[in-house]
Design brief:
Layout lengths: L10 H10 L26 H16 L5 E8 L2 E12 L4 E2 L6 E2 L5 H13 L20 E2 L9 E2 L6 H5 L19 H4 L22 H14 L3 H13 L20 E4 L2 E4 L16 E2 L1 H12 L3 E2 L2 E2 L3 H7 L15 E3 L4 E3 L2 H4 L8 E4 L5 E5 L4 E6 L7 H10 L4
Antiparallel strand pairs: 1-2, 1-16, 2-3, 4-9, 5-6, 7-8, 10-11, 12-13, 13-14, 14-15, 15-16
């Protein structure tokens, strides 16, 4: 398949960016070229109607819902919208920039999923494998009683890798991030083996905010023999050219980190957020830019390949974005199934969304949001550092209403 991306330094990319008028005061994005292997006769996007994205963000900034945001839309291999609005830090009045770094929280989960699927493709693990194959402590789980107190009944079966990827494992759903700055996945994850499950594996869907995908990160370490952060860097970030993505922000990039805020009666309040030093989460923790995450999302849209680098087979991406958990399973919402590490739209009417059937993606606790739309050959990314009610849904509408 032809490369969809032009090198950042190429003359073609510069001509494209100047033509589209997205230089502004920020560095130009890495432009995209159309893949001859995947085109659509309809579903073109209106540049005029895309302006409603910026209008939406401006309204939210004026309402003091958010400090600022970066929004990015690419269709058919070309960036059609890329804007930075507002401030990345209210106190210093520093403007938001297109290369601002964001804590994407649970948008780390699709990246972890790709790491797991790479190892599955290599035959080093199976989705049906019990987690105890890799973490021996994960055996003989008990089921939480109605009272929450012993005695606990035995789980009907082992938890599998697929259970973790689909949030059907029964492992506690609340956030569990270690406070000890010397903590590691190798030590921390086995401590959950004694906690009772919320439900029998596979019988319902309940979001495992951190533990489930942190367990997957530990499985990647056991199978690959590398630390999770190193595996991601070597196998995903470097091949895709995601030069600004990591669990830790180095000193040279500190000035580009957008400040996290939360709403309060007095307005937006700075949130103190300190990562554990040695703990590289699989369900949270990555910092990245809109441009970097676009490369990851375009790889998925392109069937596992980008810029001549294939990370996954096309069938594997199809499996990832297939419905493994239907909306009929308890815990799911109407019109929205669950794939491997991503939500999948199955009925726009039932969900009340403008998104197309088959669109897949996920969100982050700090307000970030993305989806891949194979039907319209489109990727959309919202980067923000304040959870604002309804913003991700409004962003979906602003993007999709622009499709003719």
């Amino acid at each position: 398949m032809k490369s969809r991306w032009i090198s950042p330094g190429s003359a073609a990319a510069i001509v494209f960016v100047l033509t589209c008028g997205v230089f502004a005061q920020n560095p130009p994005p890495r432009a995209v070229v159309t893949s001859a292997a995947r085109t659509h006769a309809d579903g073109t996007i209106s540049a005029e109607r895309l302006q409603r994205i910026g209008q939406l963000i401006d309204r939210r900034i004026a309402a003091n819902d958010i400090a600022g945001a970066v929004t990015l839309v690419a269709q058919r291999g070309q960036i059609v919208h890329f804007e930075a609005r507002g401030l990345m830090d209210l106190e210093s009045r520093k403007p938001m920039a297109k290369d601002s770094l964001f804590d994407i929280a649970s948008m780390t989960k699709p990246v972890t999923t790709v790491a797991v699927l790479m190892l599955a493709e290599e035959g080093r693990l199976r989705l049906t494998d019990p987690v105890s194959r890799f973490i021996p402590a994960f055996t003989n789980f008990k089921l939480k009683s109605a009272s929450g107190l012993p005695p606990f009944a035995a789980a009907a079966r082992d938890i599998t890798v697929r259970d973790l990827l689909t949030h059907t494992s029964g492992i506690v759903s609340e956030a569990r991030i270690p406070q000890d700055r010397t903590e590691t996945l190798a030590h921390y994850i086995p401590t959950f083996a004694t906690a009772p499950l919320e439900f029998q594996p596979g019988t319902r869907w309940m979001y495992s905010n951190t533990v489930g995908f942190d367990t997957l990160a530990r499985i990647v370490e056991v199978v690959s023999g590398e630390s999770f952060d190193r595996f991601l860097q070597e196998r995903i970030f470097t091949p895709l050219g995601m030069k600004d993505t990591a669990h830790k922000v180095d000193e040279a990039r500190n000035g580009r980190v957008a400040t996290i805020y939360q709403a309060s009666a007095a307005g937006l309040r700075r949130r103190q957020y300190d990562d554990a030093a040695a703990y590289f989460g699989g369900g949270w923790g990555l910092k990245t830019t809109a441009d970097d995450y676009l490369r990851f999302a375009e790889m998925l849209l392109n069937g596992g390949e980008l810029d001549g680098k294939r990370l996954l087979g096309r069938r594997t991406v199809q499996l990832m974005s297939s419905v493994h958990v239907p909306d009929t399973l308890p815990g799911r919402q109407p019109g929205e199934g669950w794939g491997l590490g991503v939500r999948v739209i199955t009925d726009p009417g039932a969900r009340g969304t403008w998104l197309s059937n088959g669109s897949f993606g996920w969100s982050g606790a700090m307000g970030t949001h993305f989806w891949v739309d194979p039907e319209n050959d489109l990727v959309a990314i919202l980067m923000v550092q304040t959870p604002a009610a309804g913003l991700s849904a409004d962003f979906e509408t602003a993007v999709m209403q622009a499709i003719n």
